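The following record pairs a protein chain with its ligand, nicotinamide-adenine-dinucleotide.
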Amino acid sequence: MVKANNAYQIDVITGENTYPVYVGEGLLEHCSFVFEQLATRQVLMVSNETVAPLYMDKLLNAMPDVETDCLILKDGEQYKNFTSLQKIYDKLIDGRYHRDSYLIALGGGVVGDITGFAASTYQRGIAYIQIPTTLLAQVDASVGGKTAINHPLGKNMIGSFYQPEAVVIDVNTLRTLPEREFKAGLAEVIKYALLHGGTFFDTLYQQLEEGIDASDIEVLKPLIAKCCRIKADIVRQDEKETGLRALLNLGHTFAHALETLSAYKRWLHGEAVAIGLYCAVLLSVKLGYAKLSLAEKVAHMLSCAGLAYKIPVGIDVEQLCDKMMLDKKIKDKRLQFVLLEAPGACFLNSEVPERLLKETLIEAFEGD
Ligand code: NAD
Ligand code: GLY
């Protein structure tokens, strides 16, 4: 990891381009170096009604020589749709944006995913920069080039792999993030620690025990940079998710089923991932891959992060199991799980017997 401009710099190397991810404090005010090449280009900044009043002016001040227009979308996952996408296209066409124009996504994963998809399709593809402002988007959504909008029949159903030109992560933006959103982001951080293992896992374990909050900038900066580094390594090897990248779905097979079952109303994505991580470790224990002490450790980390990890009362385990078996992500008609032997030793498995899956769900259930 190289330090540049008082920030960590991680380079994401893909088949078509290499781009930097900058992680630092106060980068919104001090990111003019990122925009130097944009001075002659037309730029459309996309944000939402919550984030724009907090950070748009700060960013505009950092790029005074760049011709920038702004589009503010409604806030919420329900607006990650065709209507918002069309608003971006309308603005681009109406403003006569050409192929050398840029989009900037300023916001969480929702703004980032829509803006990235608009960039990948407008005039067959224009450049874009990600400026993520939630912990979840900083450690996951903004890096790696997955873009999407939702379809009424399914989440992220319309999308593309399309890498940004740069990702600018200003850790200071987390100071205004609602606590619940911050904790949800910690679930993805724990996911990376489980994927990577080693001292990263041990250090995070300790940091969580001590407590991490959004103002712990000196803890968060290297933590976020490390997650981006881990993701960059995986994306470099498998940009289009033909194999290895699927490891990033650790806990997600369970999480997606929970989210679908509750019509995306009960949990934030990271909250569902927290339960999913616990279930994935329990399943690994049941199959004889991992030790029970690992499940206890993960439960402890999630608790320290303020995240519930048990399947709550009110969720029908039978229904949840059925939902999982019908998951659209089933490959060759088999449900694929990410399992682990230990932190840093994760693997894909499509051979999980339904009986053991059900037993795991019952064990992870918090009811009596
Ligand atoms: P989000 O974008 O909805 O942001 C969460 C909330 O926080 C929103 O209300 C937002 O306006 C607000 N917010 C954002 N930054 C803020 C700040 N600094 N201060 C105050 N409020 C702020 O949700 P998210 O968790 O960032 O992202 C979830 C989305 O990301 C989902 O649509 C998911 O599908 C997608 N995602 C994509 C990838 C990927 O690889 N592309 C990976 C994971 C998730
Ligand atoms: N969020 C999982 C991925 O980017 O592949």
